[in-house]
Specification:
The chain is an alpha+beta fold. It folds into two domains: 75 residues, RNA-binding S4 domain (Structural Genomics Hypothetical 15.5 Kd Protein In mrcA-pckA Intergenic Region, Chain A, Roll); 171 residues, Pseudouridine synthase. Helices cover 17% and strands 25% of the residues. It is elongated, with a radius of gyration of 22 Å. Keywords: Isomerase, RNA-binding. It is an enzyme of class 5 (isomerase). One of its GO terms (molecular function) is RNA binding. It holds the Pfam family PseudoU_synth_2.
Amino acid sequence: MAPDARTCPALASPHERGYAKGMTDTPPDGDRIAKVLSRAGIASRRDAERMIEEGRVSVNGKTITSPALNVTDRDRIVVDGKPVGQPEAARLWLYHKPAGLVTSARDEKDRETVFDALPDDMPRVMSVGRLDINSEGLLLLTNDGGIKRKLELPSTGWLRRYRVRINGSVSEARLDELRKGITVDGVKYQPMIVTFDRQQGANAWLTISIREGKNREIRRAMEAVNATVNRLIRVSYGPFQLGKLEPGAVEEVKGRVLREQLGLETPAPQKAKARKPITRVMKSEGAAPARKGPGKPAGPKRGPR
């Protein structure tokens, strides 16, 4: 018998669940399906909503095409033919992104992505924000969509600090424009913390700290003061530091540190296998990482799909 609202509560309409305007103020049980998928590390909420609209998600045997649905742990959720289990405890990793990798789940030009370069034993993860293909340094990875969203919000007040190399030099007067806040092509950037570190031949090194992290913010702001960035390295994101992590290496943040920094509750004890923090380093520069062919199934375990 095909599932219906009587046998599968998640498929009932708000009216059928007794949650309709004028009837009751009690919201339906559970959480929105996109939130649940994000919490399980499947994808960000926005990407999860897109996956639902594409018909890639089913609940209790029925394909859904709208994210306006609440589910509970009693419902059976399947994405791309694979059952979605209960979310694991929130985890966070530090990754030293090398230049040349795209911070994206898929790349239309078939370029190597951050997720292609991660160790095979990494679980499915999402990036916290992005670094463009030519930028390098600290990139945070998490298996939890709620943490991803929380860390990306400017309201956290966390500084993202970068070492910036520019071609030529730049005057303090021009840097003061960045310190006061600047508008470029109609986009307003908040005041930046800028320090001129040293001149090194034809280049100069600066340290720049920002709180928003808009798309290519530092590169565009520097162009506005007639300076061209030729190297950009993120060295910290809030309390998390790149330190001596080698390019291509990934290291897990201890659960205690993560809970203290984000104010998370201590998880209830669970019967699970002990896990060691993952630390891997990419092969030497002479050996390029293996490319994943276009025939790779959608949604590998280590990248958001």
